[in-house]
What we know:
There is one protein chain. The chain is an alpha/beta fold and 171 residues long. The chain is built from seven helices and five strands; from the N terminus they run E-E-H-H-E-E-H-E-H-H-H-H. The protein has helices spanning 16-19, 24-37, 58-66, 79-83, 85-89, 92-132, 157-167; strands spanning 5-8, 12-13, 43-48, 51-56, 71-76. A five-stranded mixed sheet has the order 1-5-3-4-2. Helix 2 (24-37) packs across helix 3. The longest helix has 41 residues, at 92-132.
Amino acid sequence: MPKPESFPIENIFVPTKQKKAIRPDTVAEIAESILDIGQQAPISVWRDGDRLVLVEGLHRLEACKALGETTILGVLVTAELAQHKPQLAERPEVEAERIKMARLKQLRLEKEAAEASTAALKGVKQAEASRTRPAKGARDKPKASPGRTAKSPPKTLSAWITQQKGSGGRY
């Protein structure tokens, strides 16, 4: 297999028939993967005069475009190999790449679900903790009479007399 090299994205021509096969969800998955681990599989192009024609790697090319890349890793193949593109799509490496991308998506979804679950659990614990705390201004001694503290004067004469009797004072 030829050695991968860097090609300017703007010089790569994508045939109209291939453009119709773009799946935005696949482009997004590949873009995420490229951000995480970089481009692992080169695209295939063949030279047609001054331009490069895409043979394989449409979604990788679109993902790199979406990420704002100006170049992409690819291999230059012969025109004869480019004619056999349907066979290239059936290669085990291509299927392995699809399986890998599906597995990466599943792992990402599981991670997001776990993070959401943890965040929701923290919210529930905080709500429960706020309900078990006494309200502001609530008394620690429920037997104390409402509206009176030890230092406040009695509100009625009979309450004053009772207080004086309890403290041994004179009235």
